[in-house]
Amino acid sequence: MRTALPPALFALGVTLLPLLPPNTVFANQAAQTPATPQTPSKFASPHLEVTIHSEDGTLHVTDLRNQRTWHQAWVETNPAFQQRLVSFDPAQNLITLECQFAGTQENGKAAPAPAQIQIRLHPERPDLEMTVELPKNDPWRRAAYPYVFLRDGSDTFNLYPHCEGMLVPVRKTHPDWIALPEGDHYGGVHSYLMCLGLVDEPSGEGLLTLLPEFESTHVRWRDVVREDQTVVAPQYVINANLGRFDRPWRATFSFSSQGGYVALAKRYRTFFAAAGFRKTLSEKAALNPAVRNIAGAPVFWAAASQPEEASGMADILKSNGIDRCLFAMANVPWRKPEPEYQVRMAQSLQHIRSLGYETYRYDQYRDAFQPNPSKPLGHQINTDAWPDKIVRRPDGKMISAFGPESGVVCARFFMPLATKAFDLEFGELPYSAWFLDCLGSVGFNAESECHDPAHPCDRYYTRREREALLAEVNRRGKLAATECGIDYLIPHVHWFEGASTLVRWVDSIHPKQVTENAGINDASGSKRPSVLTELSKLEPTASPQRTISISTRYRIPFYSLCHHDEVIVTWRWEDGMEQPPVYWQWKNLWSVLYGAPPMYRVFSSGLKRFQSQIGQTQRYVSDWVREVAFDALDNHRFVTPDRLVQETEFSSGRGVVANFGDTDYALPDGQTVKAKDYVTFRKTPQGRTYTPPPCPNVFQ
User: Which residues are bridge partners to 498 per DSSP?
Assistant: First the structure.
């Protein structure tokens, strides 16, 4: 039965909670028992109790397992934007609310967007499920939900799933606080998973916001002031599709009483599987046996100018103990007018495959370039798409990625362009795998909507066509890869290049750290050299300050905790093991800890310089990664408070303890982990059996 709450009664405030100012950040508090159980401003499931505050419409969610309460804060100033209770259905534990979202119309003007919200308590899980309906007919760009969930504490962190994942303090006064990116949440150099998290480290309590409507989810970070602290929390914003809110927007707030980010990762795995995206590496190997060949194999981009040079580089790898490899013809020209060139390419690829390697090259269908007869033919610059197959804005202008002579291909033409190239490439040359750039990183922003009346396209069609490109590579019997790692593509992808790197911060050193290298992070002046360029000048044995990407300060293996048994991930192309050499040791340790293969992008000169270190990394990293390649990553923990010693455990019972510090560390059971080194272990009924690395780390 649905019971409507009269507006007058709601205005009087039927809840007995004290009234609180709208921008207050709340500490944890014990649950309060309602005076009137039938009052629809308070309802409960076996796990959660929700109270609707009568003054500002905020929700307060008490976890009945530990009697701790999570609070919303109202982050707008107009009282008309506050939530108002419309009805309550006790049989479904469902409430209906109305409020105004902070909207932006299609013309760019701010305006309130009327919204109806349904919130349901899940009967079996500690989840609060939200569905939002916004006006379908009016032209809009986006609209922001005027409330945020938050938790304050000196050891409370926003869990941001960028690449492998990060924990960033919620307090702006924390010395490790950094600004997180705003905008379209999923893709680009933002989030690679359909969620955001909040973790209270001392208690292990957490909140995971699951975001299945990833094509339309936008995020802003809002400051909420509490006493002398400013706490930063995510505000969810809904993007319109071609100027309309043409479908409901959903989110699930899932509460965890213990287990921290590991428990949140397990919840995400459940969500991901229920959404139909889960497909394990074992399942993929049953369809394509080459998957087992690439398990633990290094990814190697051979920056060669001729096919024979690439073959020679493969021979050097083989002579240094690399028996398996994902080998990319990186700089080798795609094709030349001379007929014998394709014969040379085929011979080179056949030789490389005879070494036991899987071969592939770069390809992409996102960017198109204006034809230029004065420039030599490049591979997949998509000049055929210029200018009639390019994404257009509402005003008819092109979406451009690389200046006025470039455009972004409309999704309606992905498959026609790709099919033509695939027929040619796979018909003539023995590639066993294919790398399609951009698909694993590009988000759902302006380029995912085409307003050209000759080929209009929305963000949902664009998503399907991006998936279709990779599915077509699978259909042709090839292994498929792309960059970065946004995870809705996992069913069609065998490896991602980039998730091991915190891409947004690959070239950043924390601005509050003052060391001899701090000057290289000075953003003043357009001629500032990059951090990686400066670090590449150092001797490999130097001990420089570490970038945000390579340090232990922010990283957690959240992506691997969610997906290790589903897809292989490695470092990004500009951040291979040797880029710069001074970080090679740290990357080896991260690769071992996460069970991720190495990655290289080198010229012949670099390969000859570092061939012994590449062979050493094979023994130090790849042999271990191969052992756990098909395992789930079950657990991760910081062994020491400074995070320099960390541990992972895999579903097979194997595990790693890695020491990123400069001094040896003794575990409680007496095992010593040497500085800049690791030990592996197996669980047995008698305890752990440890195994040292098969060789020293590079440059030791």
Answer: 484
